[in-house]
Amino acid sequence: MIKWLLNKIVGSKNVREVKRMKPIVAKINEIELTYQSLTDEELRDKVASWQDDLHRFLPLDMPTKRNIENSDADELETLAEIVNLRFEALRADFPSLPANVEATPDSIESAKKAFEEVEGAFGSMRESYLDQILPEAYAAVKNAARRMCGTQIAITD
């Protein structure tokens, strides 16, 4: 009896979850309406920009110290360029990263260490970014599904 009364007053877990999601669903539907005016190419570009943003938080794929030390000047130049591009994409979030990595084994090794120091924050930053784009991503998927099926798909309250 008490449980039934509490469910009537406070609501069940499912009812509370539905109430929590209503604003998100409304935002998804609102965004999806604006996505209907986008071309397929514009929608692909939007998804590609999300992917680019998320790729900032991937691990730095670099050779071992020994391989770096045995690399020739062209390989070192390529490695330094790769590191500099990654750092450029991350510098707004991590100003502690080196400004310019030179094409030397020592410089590249110190850059790898600097990257490893900030890499621990990637998980929370990735999660935060995904939370930020969640309604847009759902709207894009909903819009793509509508285009594939040729019908209107409605998420209702």
Keywords, separated by commas or semicolons:
157 residues, mainly alpha, 7 helices, 72% helix
Architecture overview:
The protein is mainly alpha-helical and about 160 residues long. It is built from 7 helices and no strands. The two termini are about 30 Å apart. It is about 70% helix and about 0% strand.
List the SSEs and their pairings:
Elements (H helix, E strand, L loop, with lengths): L1 H8 L3 H23 L4 H16 L9 H5 L3 H18 L14 H15 L2 H28 L8
Helix pairs in contact: 2-7, 3-7, 5-6
Distance between the termini: 29 Å
Low-pLDDT regions:
none
C-alpha Rg (nearest Å) = 23 Å
Instruction: Please state the overall shape, judged from the principal axes of the Cα atoms.
Output: elongated
Tell me the strand percentage band.
Answer: under 5%
Helix content: over 70%
Run of helices and strands: HHHHHHH
The number of helical segments is 7
In round numbers, the mean pLDDT is: 88
Category by helix and strand content: mainly alpha
State the major sheet: none
Number of β-strand runs: 0
